[in-house]
Design a protein that fits this description.
Elements: H1 8-16, H2 32-46, H3 55-85, H4 106-131
Helix pairs in contact: 1-2, 1-3
Length: 161
């Protein structure tokens, strides 16, 4: 088989647009068939004549693409984790970021998106409750209530470092 030149940035882009391959909170993340279909989409995007390859060449290409993805993802995670432990100031030294660091930051954004969705849901729920001027009980049989006053709600920060 002639070695195919696999562009890491393109692999990252193709995986990013297929959340079942990387988003643990996605409904299809644990669906093996959905993942196989998603990977097939990645292979076809990277190599339009993928279907014309022999079975052995297909397996080699699949293995190479998935290895390229794992290597990029793991390098990003190592870089991100090492940045947490770097000292600031003169003791910190100069660390260069992983070459695809910015391309892989979408791996963190799912947590921010989940937080933002949750905040929006809470705001919508609070608006509905404020419209009816009711404080709703946590449990219908309980006398404990949930405050809908924004000043008493815990403050969240979705700041990404």
């Amino acid at each position: 088989m002639s070695k195919h030149n696999i562009d890491t940035e393109r692999v990252i882009t193709e995986v990013r647009i297929r959340p079942p391959l990387w988003d643990l909170s996605h409904d299809l993340f644990k669906d093996k068939d959905a993942k196989l279909q998603a990977w097939f989409g990645v292979y076809k995007a990277l190599l339009p004549d993928f279907n014309d390859l022999s079975e052995n060449d297909k397996k080699d290409f699949e293995k190479s693409v998935q290895q390229r993805w794992r290597t990029a993802r793991d390098a990003y995670m190592r870089c991100k984790n090492s940045m947490k432990s770097v000292k600031s100031g003169s003791e910190g030294g100069k660390r260069t970021k992983y070459v695809f660091f910015k391309h892989l930051q979408f791996l963190d954004k799912k947590h921010v998106a989940d937080t933002e969705d949750s905040i929006e849901e809470n705001e919508t729920r609070e608006d509905t409750q404020q419209d009816s001027n009711l404080e709703s009980p946590i449990n219908p049989r309980s006398t404990e209530t949930v405050s809908t006053n924004p000043e008493t709600q815990p403050q969240c920060s979705s700041q990404v470092r």
